[in-house]
Design goal:
alpha+beta; 4 helices; 4-stranded mixed beta sheet
Length: 234
């Protein structure tokens, strides 16, 4: 996983904005790890001492001194975890941040920590008898089936059209891996961290004139991080 993500329409918007700053991670089929390697399994409840902004991102420094980006994925754009993950599988990760975010604190060891209000499935034991299809953990862990495996989302998320396994993205669609049968109880969710993804680049979207004015200072500050910084033409 390296470099810049793919531009284009996403569920959260029509594409990168002129003047915007983005933290990115490209996804490559030839990468050293498959994308699902970066899922957190089981999802981790948010520590009570971690104050997370509901809008935008929050910087958090771990006990080893590495600063990470905590990002709450909004349900209004991504109702379920697979919607966000399958979009990223096709396009990579590109998260817009405030130009005032001190990205100079980031390093090559920094990661996205993605949260979602429906990341943890809280009643897997009740759901398991109703699964249609064979549940397989996407991270390869051989834990019991009736656990809060992150991969369970691809079986309990509702399809866009009854009788299919299809859900739609900003561009294209993807297939779920199974579904819940008739009579299944409602899925209970909790807010949690569901993925830890490397940050591989910082990008600034520029016009024909390139990096100008106050943006030059911001660009220089971004270069103080341990990450590649790119000026990308809109």
């Amino acid at each position: 996983m390296h470099g810049l993500a793919q531009g284009g329409r996403r569920l959260c918007g029509d594409g990168r904005m002129l003047g915007g700053w983005y933290l990115e991670c490209a996804v490559s089929a030839s990468g050293s790890h498959p994308l699902d390697h970066f899922l957190v399994d089981f999802p981790t409840l948010v520590p009570t001492n971690l104050s997370v902004s509901a809008l935008g991102v929050t910087l958090w420094t771990d006990p080893k001194g590495v600063t990470h980006v905590v990002d709450v994925i909004g349900e209004s754009h991504y109702p379920f975890v697979p919607d966000f993950w399958e979009e990223a599988r096709r396009m990579g990760f590109s998260r817009k941040v405030s130009p005032t975010l001190p990205v100079g604190k980031l390093s090559a060891q920094s990661r996205f920590l993605f949260l979602h209000n429906k990341a943890l499935i809280a009643n897997p034991e009740a759901l398991m008898p109703h699964l249609e299809g064979t549940h397989v953990c996407p991270t390869g862990k051989r834990h019991p089936a009736d656990t809060s495996c992150t991969g369970l989302h691809w079986w309990v998320t509702p399809s866009a059209t009854p009788g299919t396994l299809t859900r739609y993205l900003g561009e294209g669609a993807y297939e779920l891996r199974g579904h819940l049968g008739a009579g299944a109880p409602a899925v209970r969710y909790a807010r949690a961290i569901f993925a830890s993804v490397p940050i591989t680049a910082i990008s600034h979207i520029v016009g024909q004139g390139g990096v100008q004015g106050a943006n030059q200072a911001q660009f220089a500050a971004a270069q103080q991080s341990g990450l590649p910084v790119y000026a990308v033409r809109a």
